[in-house]
What does this fold into?
Amino acid sequence: MNLTLRVPLESFVKLFREMGVLEYRYFVKHSIQVANITTEIVDRLKLPFEKDEVYLSSLLHDVGLILKVSIGNYELFVEMFGKIPDMERIVLTLDKNDHHSVISWMVVSQIPLCSDCSKSILYHHTPYQKINEKDSIVTLSNCVKTADVISLKLLKYTGSDKELDAESIDEIISSIQKDQGIIDEVKKAAVYLLKDFTKHHLFLEEEPQFHSEKMLSLEEYNHYAMILSALLDFRSPYTRSHSFAVARVSKLLAEEILGEADAALAFTASLLHDIGKIKTPLSILHKKGRLQASEMIIMKRHVVDTYYMLERAGLRLFSLISAAHHERLDGSGYPTGLKGDQMPFLQKLIQICDVFSALTEKRPYRDPVEIHEALDIIEQEAINGKLDGFIVQKLKEIANNLDLREEISFKHVFEELFKDRVDEVIQMISLMSKMI
It folds into this structure.
């Protein structure tokens, strides 16, 4: 395996865009609008920041809202997200103390971005007069705040697929001009943008205005992949650690059998293995009984969605590995019925880790299976010719030396996302202490 394997940064933004469905419809739209508008204002003001970093930090300015609300008040998360275009109402209802700004900053500060860019997220609801930071952070934060205000009002006016009319534009301009928490030069740039009809595509269309030639190492890219995995897994209480658990076990197995480089590839491919499930309705994911034939069609489609989402993002290496996690050695799997000699080793490895993780997690139709029982089930699948027996035995050896229940516990999700700030996040999210 080539240790210098590089991943296009642009693929992250493409995948983020594709997650704008179901519960994340308005969240992703808002995020892209804020990133597009912020970058345009920063460019007009000629602020000394790299365009890529401004875009990425502002794109992720609200990611903490998902992490907080989906855990702290899941019922309202399901009730409001994807159904109510008024994101401002959602924030005021579910995060009155603005914890999500802090949580977003904590997540983004783990990404290899300039500290000023990531810190701008912390103050995206704060009037510039109340920011006690150096001027560059104050101004950039104010640009994000202004873009956020514009997008929130746009969603109110256009969220239900209405067109932006002249009266709405006038109201948005007026609100920006009257906002005492916005710096005058930022106001001027924002109003200019709103009056320039050639720029309206930046906020009326839902396409990211992001183009980058930058390539990342797997280690660098994993910070981004973990954010996507968290957004995916936090849609449901039944999957909150699934992608991370598969990734951790895949990494352990690959390190044991193949070495560090292949383990890094297995980790990333596992983080993204279920990304297509973002399009699977919760009504199917949460069904307590047996799925009907038509429901099973939708459920099985997630592997195809995973494949094409990764392909469109320019991640062909991951698409080939990740989308094969329901294939089986005897050809009985899906989507293409591959057989053993048609599958590379990492596909076989992730299949086993996915089954193991799924068995040991609670599902709407059953309780989690104990580790030893899960290993027995997987071993029987290997005996039946469906899973790779050599890899299964290696997993059993690892289980003899490590507490795998501990290795796949939910706390590791937050350790990966927040590093040494986990305790701070726990204090901001109700119910968290009961889950870790």
Summary: The chain has two domains: 10-204, 241-409.
